[in-house]
């Protein structure tokens, strides 16, 4: 049985995931202001993914007879010095989210809450992907520096990104 403490932390996580969507939409808006349409698309898709993460937890809390309680969202950062800074911020944010997922897993393990441990495994794997995506884009952006031709190519590549909900949920 899920404790009140664990339900509260799962609820907080729903909010963190919704905040992630909010943050990435603000990053999309920044990219749009720089006329980087592909990067804009990248972050819009990222925001969709985050909403999916939130809803997966939303459904889980309901399924386990808990009550979802939403909180307010902080104001996200809207301005960035460069596109590289956008990705550095996103990467730091994902590291924070990973620490939250580990924290939730620790509580679930302390409580021997096996269903929640199993559900959270999906998020642990997802965080490996999220961190790796941002870290590899940072490396690319650091390599290309101010080469606008390569930036344009990357922008074209990101224009192709689309959101496909995972089907195992
Ligand atoms: Fe939900 O993984 Fe990013 O924040």
From TrEMBL:
Xref: SUPFAM superfamilies: Ferritin-like
EC number(s) given by UniProt: 1.16.3.2
InterPro entries: Ferritin (IPR001519), Ferritin-like (IPR012347), Ferritin-like_diiron (IPR009040), Ferritin-like_SF (IPR009078), Ferritin_DPS_dom (IPR008331), Ferritin_prok (IPR041719)
Species, as recorded: Clostridium aestuarii
Biological function: Iron-storage protein.
Subcellular location(s) of the protein: Cytoplasm
Top-tier EC class: oxidoreductase
Reactions this protein catalyses: 4 Fe(2+) + O2 + 6 H2O = 4 iron(III) oxide-hydroxide + 12 H(+)
Residue ranges constituting the Ferritin-like diiron domain according to the UniProt record: 1-145
Keywords: Cytoplasm, Iron, Iron storage, Metal-binding, Oxidoreductase
Name of the protein in its database record: Ferritin
Family: Belongs to the ferritin family. Prokaryotic subfamily.
Pfam families: Ferritin
Superkingdom field: Bacteria
